[in-house]
Amino acid sequence: MKEQIITRDVVANPKTKYGNAKASTRHFITQRLTGAINVLFILFLVFIVAKLAGADRADMVATIGNGWIGLPLALLLVIVTIHMRNGMRDTLEDYFAGRAYSTYMTLNTLFCVVIAVAGVAAILKLVFWG
């Protein structure tokens, strides 16, 4: 089977089957939704940073260990990593294709999962076990 070379003309032609329409729509909506949530959460984050400015470790642990602060902060971390993964996906799509794209996208996903899990675990430890 002959592999088609993907050029600007192929992508611009609506009759070609380039990409997955449902995945692209989901990616677009996820990127916009997580971006909007990040904008809303920025006020919360600024409040936390301002409150903790100049505080010692005990005050920081007590503040982040509060469930009303720590749980939304953990949710924010998850949403930020989803947004980060999608943004990096856009960059990887621009510069890589085929096997290299798949490899870098897998590494990107793994990195984002590690950041989210480590951060959420640290926050939940403070919330539930001080």
Automatic annotation (TrEMBL):
Which BP terms from GO are recorded?
tricarboxylic acid cycle
The organism's lineage? Bacteria, Pseudomonadati, Pseudomonadota, Alphaproteobacteria, Hyphomicrobiales
Q: What is its main location?
A: membrane
GO cellular component terms attached to this protein's record: membrane
Single GO MF descriptor: heme binding
Cofactor(s) needed by this chain: heme
Membrane topology, record value: Multi-pass membrane protein
The residue ranges crossing the membrane are 33-53, 65-84, 105-128
**NCBIfam families per the UniProt record, alphabetical:** succ_dehyd_anc
Per UniProt, the keywords (alphabetical) are:
Electron transport, Heme, Iron, Membrane, Metal-binding, Transmembrane, Transmembrane helix, Transport, Tricarboxylic acid cycle
Pathway membership: Carbohydrate metabolism; tricarboxylic acid cycle
Entry superkingdom = Bacteria
Q: By what name is this protein known?
A: Succinate dehydrogenase hydrophobic membrane anchor subunit
Species whose genome carries this gene: Devosia epidermidihirudinis
The answer to whether the entry has keyword tRNA-binding is: no
- What would be one Pfam family of this protein? Sdh_cyt
